[in-house]
Amino acid sequence: MNAREAILARVREALTVPGPGPHQRAGEMAGHGATTHTAPPPRGSLPVLALEAARPWLPDGGATPEDRLALLADNLGKLKAVFHRVPTIHAAQDLLFSIARERDWKRVAWHAHPLVEPILAGIPCATHRVDSAAALAADLATDSTTPKDALEACDAGITGCDALVAQTGSILVSSATCGGRALSVLPPVHVVVATPEQIVATLADAFDALRERHGSSFPSMLSFITGPSRTGDIERILVLGAHGPKELFVILVG
Amino acid sequence: MPPHPSPTATPPGPHADPSGDAERGSHGAKKRFLHDAREYVRDTDHRAFLRRALAGYCATRDGQKARYRDWEHARDAASLAKWNAVNRLDEMLVRFADAFEAGGGKVHWARDAAEAREIILGIVRAAGAKAIIKSKCMTTEEIHLNAALEAEGYGVVESDLGEFIQQLRGEPPFHFVFPCMHVRRGEISKLFEEHLGSAPTESPEELTMIARRYMRRLYVEADVGITGANFLVAETGQISITENEGNARLTAALPRVHVALAGIEKCVERLDDLAVLLPMLATAGTGQPLTCYNTLYGGPRAPGECDGPREMHIVLLDNGRAAILADPEQRDSLQCIRCGACLNVCPIFKNVGGFTYGTTYQGPIGSVITPHLRGLGDWNHLSQASSLCGACTDACPVRIDIHHHLLHNRRNAVRAAPNRLERMGHRMFAAVAARPRLFATGGTLFRRSLWFLKKLRLPLLRDWIASRDLPQAPARSFRDQWRHRAPPAVARSRPATTGSDR
Ligand code: SF4
């Protein structure tokens, strides 16, 4: 018997002995102690809680678009991310350029995206596109660290996102739509550009948005980013920018 | 910096021995536990330090819990999601494995720690790895992976800040969520000075930046990245990793090969289950609305993606978990999502610290599962190290009946190895208690001779008296006092007299 079959056999064998039902204590199992509850449900007919049922118990995600926007802004603030709402692409550009000048960026990384591209046009520093033909070619050369080095040397990564989650203040990025896996986490600053329509209420809604967008073949990585990278490992004192970005900007256009 | 008399200078705990696995000298673990517990309890500085750190946790957690519209019902939902997966684990595992392999990754199965180490070593060898980077994963601690990799000459660096500090200190994690919560900043500064040549500093921020700078080259140069997994989603064949620092994201983004190690109990059925479990894990574990990065991986980089590993492997580890599953009474302990909440609220943990347990998983949940994973005979003493206050059970986001399981372990241990002396004592007491006259005479005798018994230091009493004061014997028995009690009206108007008034 190979390991897979051996483990599965052990598991099946173990499960032939019925255990307590959900929310039952061992002592409450039928025939096990003084209090006799209904016997645990037979296998195959187990009650699985519909997420809809759990939703009203979790933190609120906002009922209207206004609620959601306010909640998102509030949560991002608490997470020490910087939230801006601007009316036009042009205003977003001005904002980004001023951030770039203030921090004296030498080089920013970006990926092809309908919001990122126009905002970046004319930025007063060098740019590095992670999904350009040249970067991809360099990556194909095995053992080359060139593309990683290039990204590592950038001062900021500018990306789009798949959704913004009001409930938790999270940004959903994917490897297929947000410039791969490293762009949103390797540079010390992450700037996310999004539109108000991308705001969803809860994590569950974000999963729905994902299914809508990608069907059943998801990108190889999906990540909920909730504030700038942080650690409390030293005396439980909060420090931002542990390994990922120290600063996180969310620019909402429109 | 005040000198810190912490006993951590010589790391106790059997896992200090890197080759050690499940098998270990039988009474060694218990002896060591008692010894270390005594040392730690005496170290009042250390206890105050832990308490301060954990008080902050409680405050933020309570603030976050208040944002749930109904925390108790949310716990039911989280518990049900895990209950469902654990009670259909065979089906979940098959579905997960099939879906994951459809995404281009490879699934490996490991019956025990040795098999898991061999599989991972095989992957590392095949990759021709020169440098390995790891993100925090308790399951790799469980199988002593680092020691096995180092024995073959592979360098491996822990990227999580807390784990990195513990790696430099040559210690296992102190707490499975906060690995170095017992270490002071001054000690970390010294450690970094010694190993990384950095300038001394008292600022947690600067210390964090020193580690950050040190690690960045390593991410770029590593060929293999090793991570754990918090959840295995059967529906979609994805693994979910929860972290705050971004180190796991980098570990799974830059190296050519990504290996994840996970216990078989990590399954959940649906992606939607995570909409409940991820916030609960964060709130219970660290008091956050959501941990900073919650990332799902369905395989290596997909066609059209511009980076990510070329290969992804997942190793599914049994190592005693099926044995817990086979015990229906304690099956729910496999629902554990390793949030660490039960440690943070445990009065024993706060006093004896994490190393004293001598286990991979410390605290109440560790005391429940370790006897199953490593043998009840050797690890049953952990179940005695509890006041049975139930704070752990109250804190658990997936409603594991932790403190009752400690009782179950005690009962099982007594069944397996009955204590003759104790049983004889109970029998004698039963015989006496059933005979009122004998009981009265015995009571009088006992009251009169208590001072003498104290002096005798009988073997059974000795341990008990060592940390407690025997009460003064009352002059009159309860029955005597009851018979001669004052009339009820008077009794109500003043506090009852107790024997200790004398
Ligand atoms: S037993 Fe419960 S509280 Fe303890 S770590 Fe596991 S999930 Fe958290």
Describe it for me?
The complex is a heterodimer of chains A (254) and B (502). Chain A is α/β, with parallel strands linked by helices and 254 residues long. Chain A has helices at 3-15, 51-54, 65-78, 89-102, 116-120, 133-140, 146-152, 203-214; strands spanning 82-86, 107-110, 126-129, 156-159, 163-165, 170-174, 189-194, 199-200, 221-225, 230-231, 239-240, 247-253. By secondary structure, chain B is an alpha/beta fold. Among the domains of chain B are: 26-323, NagB/RpiA/CoA transferase-like (Rossmann fold); 429-478, no CATH class. The longest helix of chain B is centred in the N-terminal third of the chain and has 22 residues, at 44-65. In chain B, 51% of the residues are buried. Mean pLDDT of chain B is 88; it is low at 1-25 and 496-502. The chains are: A alpha/beta (254), B alpha/beta (502). At the A-B interface, helix 1, helix 2, helix 6, helix 7 and helix 8 of A face helix 2, helix 3, helix 4, strand 1 and helix 8 of B. Iron/sulfur cluster (SF4) binds next to helix 14 of chain B.
Compute the separation of the termini of chain B in Å. Answer: 50 Å
* Overall domain count of chain A: 1
Q: Helical proportion of chain A?
A: 25-40%
Compute the gyration radius of chain B: what is it?
Answer: 26 Å
- Write down the CATH topology of chain A: Rossmann fold
> For this structure, what is the CATH homologous superfamily of the domain at 26-323 in chain B?
NagB/RpiA/CoA transferase-like
CATH class of the domain at 26-323 in chain B: Alpha Beta
Question: What best-fitting shape of chain B do the alpha-carbon axes yield?
Answer: elongated
- The overall pLDDT of chain A, averaged over residues, is 89
Mean pLDDT of chain B comes to 88
Task: Please identify, by name, the CATH architecture of chain A.
Answer: 3-Layer(aba) Sandwich
Tell the overall outline of chain A.
globular
**Which architecture of the domain at 26-323 in chain B does the CATH hierarchy give at level 2?**
3-Layer(aba) Sandwich
Order of strands, widest sheet of chain B? 1-10-7-4-2-3
Overall number of strands of chain A: 12
Report helical residue fraction of chain B: 40-55%
